[in-house]
Amino acid sequence: MAVDAISTVRRWMMLVIALFATLSANVFINGAAFLIPTLHTTMGLDLAKSGLVSAMPSFGMVVTLIAWGYVVDRVGERFVLSVGSALTAAAALAAATAHSLFVVGVFLFLGGMAAASSNSASGRLVVGWFPPHQRGLVMGIRQTAQPLGVAFGALVIPRLAQSHGVGVALLFPAIVCGVAAVVCAVAVADPPRPPRAEAPAEHLANPYRGSALLWRIHAVSVLLVVPQCVVWTFTLVWLITDRGWSAQAAGLMVMFAQILGALGRIAAGRWSDRLGLRLRPIRTIALAAAASMFLLALTDALHSPLSIAVMVAASVITVSDNGLAFTAIAEITGPFWSGRALGAQNTSQLLTTGIAPPLFGALIGVLGYPVAFAVCALFPLVAFPLVPTDPPRRD
């Protein structure tokens, strides 16, 4: 009994550390979007250029996600989480002390390359330590790191940027990621797994060969991430410039929406555990995401105060699928391929996250927010028929 209790405590401790490490990385990755109001109103950059600066961490992540996944498959989670967090902190510190916006962009790109480490490693850590009937719930909890990271960034970074400038604002993710590096180096334990030499041949085989299952999951996730990243990137500046909110009030609203989004991910994970399925709930979420974005476009075009409530609902719905797809991929590929498969999943999503902000920033500049929100609604509609049927789960 005592041994079981210790094992249970260790599992949940690994979840907490995985959550904190990924949250810290997301304060850096997504926090760059909260520099947009300062870049736009104080430094004179248009929304397209400001969106490009905010996307630099995502572009950096695209370069290294699969490589970090390979290192996780070969070396383990502790090494990747601690080294990656330390390098992210160093890049954020370098960006904070840079005197050129171009150099800031370079270090944001390099920090994104380092921050990619947390995605595959923390997901592997959670899946490896928990049994199948709990993985949806705990992966949902782990996936709250992204909206919680956005929430903390929205609360702190815009106020620092407006009051003290971009450099001081970037010190916040530097400190958070530095603490995460120390915690991971001291406390992370790699989950138990069989030696590679003893694994069955089918567990070592390339899961991408002979099946379109993983490719379809990646494609669905790419389509569903477009409305998510547009809502995250432009809600703050929309509230400030279009609705006349103060930076503090807008930051609090974004934080509130992201906390609700975190709870939505947990609920979606628990739902998938009860069903014993990961992919079927994604179909429902895709339809709900399309409906919420169409409604946001309509209420914004009508200048209705309901648009604020719809924005909050869209912030919750559009993030709910991520944990389900992540868990499905980890279970399908197993411990010898999941690092690379999760890296591929995040690469495709983050490449989209990097491309979407400048494109939608330009679209907003020409046609306005309602048209941009309506265009976003088309992506989950396309995703709906692409969602595959759940395969038998590999425990």
Summed up:
With 395 residues, this protein is an all-alpha fold.
Task: Give the topology.
Layout: H1 2-31, H2 36-42, H3 47-74, H4 77-97, H5 101-115, H6 117-129, H7 132-143, H8 145-164, H9 166-187, H10 201-204, H11 213-242, H12 247-275, H13 280-301, H14 306-317, H15 322-333, H16 338-367, H17 369-383
Pfam families: MFS_1
Organism: Mycolicibacterium aromaticivorans JS19b1 = JCM 16368
Subcellular location: Cell membrane
Question: Main attributes?
Answer:
395 residues, mainly alpha
Provide the domain count: 1
Oligomer: single chain
Counted beta strands: 0
End-to-end gap = 24 Å
Radius of gyration: 20 Å
Characterize the main sheet. Answer: none
| DSSP helical segment count | 17
For this structure, the CATH topology is Growth Hormone, Chain: A
Share in β-strands: under 5%
Order of helices and strands: HHHHHHHHHHHHHHHHH
Considering DSSP H and I runs of 4 or more, what fraction of the residues is helical?
A: over 70%
CATH architecture: Up-down Bundle
What do the pLDDT scores average to?
A: 85
Shape descriptor:
globular
Structural class: mainly alpha
| The CATH C-level class name | Mainly Alpha
| CATH superfamily descriptor | MFS general substrate transporter like domains
Low-confidence stretches: none
Report on this model:
This is MFS transporter. One of its GO terms (molecular function) is transmembrane transporter activity. The chain crosses the membrane at residues 12-39, 51-72, 79-110, 168-189, 213-239, 245-263, 284-302, 359-387. It is a multi-pass membrane protein. The protein has 395 residues and is mainly α. The protein has helices at residues 2-31, 36-42, 47-74, 77-97, 101-115, 117-129, 132-143, 145-164, 166-187, 201-204, 213-242, 247-275, 280-301, 306-317, 322-333, 338-367, 369-383. The two termini are 24 Å apart.
